[in-house]
Design a protein that fits this description.
Blueprint: E1 7-11, E2 17-21, E3 24-31, E4 35-39, E5 49-52, E6 59-63, H1 75-84
Antiparallel strand pairs: 1-2, 2-3, 3-4, 4-5, 5-6
Length: 113
């Protein structure tokens, strides 16, 4: 019985969408009859790429990665955590400001006494 690798679309830190497949992240470069995704390490010389159908349910073709391109089986989880800010104390609208972050109100016009 063969294991079919999972294709996941994950929000990245910039608010865009990345594809995570076999422990590597890909950025969308083109979408016409099929979608062309480049390895997120392309600036470091990795030529890894994936072509998917428009629905991103099937991988049609792949290009190999360089040997130094890291594989991380938990990459999708880490990217989701980074994009949502979970694990860090991030202020969001509607969230109360902690007492330590509040400053005491000063005079309305500091030039006049």
């Amino acid at each position: 019985m063969s294991v079919v690798p999972e294709i996941r679309l994950v929000q990245n830190r910039c608010g865009g969408t990345s594809l995570v497949y076999e422990g590597r992240a890909y950025k969308l470069k083109r979408a016409a009859r099929k979608k062309y995704w480049r390895c997120s390490q392309d600036k470091k010389g990795c030529g890894g790429a994936v072509w998917t159908n428009l629905d991103v349910t099937t991988v049609i073709k792949r290009n190999d990665h360089i040997e130094s391109c890291p594989v991380d089986e938990h990459l999708a989880y880490k990217m989701e955590k980074r994009a949502t800010g979970k694990g860090r104390d991030v202020w969001a609208p509607g969230k109360a400001i902690p007492k330590t972050a509040q400053s005491s109100p000063g005079p309305a016009n500091p030039g006049t006494v």
